[in-house]
């Protein structure tokens, strides 16, 4: 469970007092409405301000497209959005002060018009953004203690909870969709059917692809940083490999060990509850492959050199392949100065996103000439459908025993308002991320590195 932002504490706690709060809500409302009126030039938005009874129309209707609809249910929402923009909007949504029948359409409007919606920004939101970016850069050092805390917050919510929306193999990263088997990245939209096993096939396809990129073969020794719930490690073990998989999540460790035993590969899958900076000395130079799926975002800029040097230290000196996947920022907006946002505050604390071209440079800086980039892939188009599948499963399964076990582990969720906020946080994340990937505002890359002159296929 994540702490609120300090701005949310101000509004929820009434720290401004009645008079100042009314000024904030009134002024924020006027500024936001003016910005929407002048800034929405692509698409159409309908805003229902229920406290005042007013309905506003912004933009121009587009042929064949329904307008994005926002319903303001509580005047506090104006203050939240004015103070912290999208982070404030997310908090208003989680508090049920804002609603929409189609959240993704709201994010699409913002992304399509973000160059002309800068009028929403205030001095308060600008200062907050710069301050949070400075704090993440200067203080978000991802010490071993902080890294463990971040993992506990992000992944130790409940194994049962993640099971309610992930595929059966519990793969919590982007799937890869096939046009023939699954209808491709838009198969769920164009076919209008619900293939209950499509996500399972797509995740198994993704695992097979990653293992293929890593040139894995029977007898190999593999190091995985970021165990997840063991799907990739177990698949590699079934191929005849020995896997050392590393996690900071005690719940994940227990489940990986149980699943490996159930699959009969417990002697080949060794789960280490430790940080990548504390690996045993016996790991030095002993691995044929290194794999990490969507974990490096949590390393942070202060430790990325240490991370890549660890990979170099662990790999065999003449034969070794590295596969890393990560959410990234496209070059047009990549920055070393990354401010707080909904995802960074409420899901993955202190994360830092690379870009497709920045990460190879960091690798070369840390391991000059010892790891060669041999392949770079863009998996961006595959994430929106993955997120839609997760969202559908959450809606279908978030009830009954799942909720009861969550409430037992987190008594604060016995308050139905807190439970609803928790559910809405996840729905918000799925739509928020889907829009970002679908519009190319956020990317997903897969990098493959190998030792010099380690040719993957005989060609002469």
TrEMBL record:
<dbReference type="InterPro" id="IPR029063">
    <property type="entry name" value="SAM-dependent_MTases_sf"/>
</dbReference>
<dbReference type="GO" id="GO:0008168">
    <property type="term" value="F:methyltransferase activity"/>
</dbReference>
<protein>
    <submittedName>
        <fullName>Cyclopropane fatty acid synthase</fullName>
    </submittedName>
</protein>
<dbReference type="Pfam" id="PF02353">
    <property type="entry name" value="CMAS"/>
</dbReference>
<dbReference type="InterPro" id="IPR050723">
    <property type="entry name" value="CFA/CMAS"/>
</dbReference>
<dbReference type="GO" id="GO:0008610">
    <property type="term" value="P:lipid biosynthetic process"/>
</dbReference>
<comment type="similarity">
    <text>Belongs to the CFA/CMAS family.</text>
</comment>
<keyword id="KW-0443">Lipid metabolism</keyword>
<dbReference type="GO" id="GO:0032259">
    <property type="term" value="P:methylation"/>
</dbReference>
<keyword id="KW-0489">Methyltransferase</keyword>
<keyword id="KW-0949">S-adenosyl-L-methionine</keyword>
<keyword id="KW-0808">Transferase</keyword>
<dbReference type="InterPro" id="IPR003333">
    <property type="entry name" value="CMAS"/>
</dbReference>
